[in-house]
Amino acid sequence: MNLTHHFLIAMPGVRDSLFARSVVYVCEHNERGTLGLIVNKLSDITLGQLFDKLDLPLQRADLATQPVLQGGPVQTDRGFVLHEVVQASAVQGGQEQEPDETLYASTLRIPGGMEMTTSKDVLEALSTGGGPQRLLITLGYSAWGEGQLESELRENAWLTVGADLAVLFDTPVPERYGRALALLGLQSWMLTAEAGHA
């Protein structure tokens, strides 16, 4: 089971204040563990305010009022940029690049057409009016150690469904939980906190 490029949707039994009614986009899932970003929990700042704090201009008016999200409880002082794949130009700095090379210094390429970048160069690109067209920025990330997520799945803590980019980029933040459930044909009133075992 590989849940990379899937949503984890919190079941009602998840009581932790950050994870309750959360939707987590899974960036990486392998034998060592899982890394994801909560995509439906607002922080108290916008991208415009974040760029002000970083002393960077934001030349993308379309992003100024976009909220920064709480991505999870780990490294909450660091930004994580989830964005569509940005192709590196064929020749950069006089050197030819491999087609699968990423444009930014520290980027995780996610199968399914997404990338997660943690280096400041993506923010600098946005500050000049460039950068990825569709993105979201979180402070912090979510992580599960080896076998931990699988254990939580057995305990009925999460539903899983393949990620839909429309939920990430075209759905208002407060509606993402409902839209993610709808991918499974569910509504929140249909869920129960009780786990059933046959």
Features:
two-stranded antiparallel ribbon, 198 residues, VC0467-like, ten-stranded mixed beta sheet, 33% strand, globular, alpha+beta, 17% helix
Q: Structural class of the helix and strand makeup?
A: alpha+beta
CATH topology of the domain at 6-78 and 136-190: VC0467-like
Low-pLDDT ranges = 90-94
Which shape, going by the Cα principal axes? globular
In words, what does this structure look like?
The chain contains five helices and twelve strands. The protein has 198 residues and is α+β, with helices and mostly antiparallel strands. The protein has a domain of 128 residues: VC0467-like (3-Layer(aba) Sandwich), CATH 3.40.1740. The strands form two sheets. Strands 1, 2, 3, 4, 5, 6, 9, 10, 11 and 12 form a ten-stranded mixed beta sheet that branches. Strands 7-8 form a two-stranded antiparallel sheet. Strand 7 and strand 8 form a beta hairpin. The longest helix has 7 residues. It is globular and about 50 Å long. About 3% of the residues have low confidence.
SSE inventory with pairings:
Elements (H helix, E strand, L loop, with lengths): L5 E5 L12 E8 L2 E6 L3 E5 H7 L13 E4 L3 E11 L6 E2 L2 E2 L10 E4 L3 E4 L3 H7 L7 E10 L3 H7 L3 E5 L2 H5 L6 H7 L16
Parallel strand pairs: 5-11
Antiparallel strand pairs: 1-2, 1-12, 2-3, 3-11, 4-5, 6-10, 6-11, 7-8, 9-10
Concise synopsis of the structure shown:
The chain is built from 5 helices and 12 strands. It has 198 residues and is of the alpha+beta class.
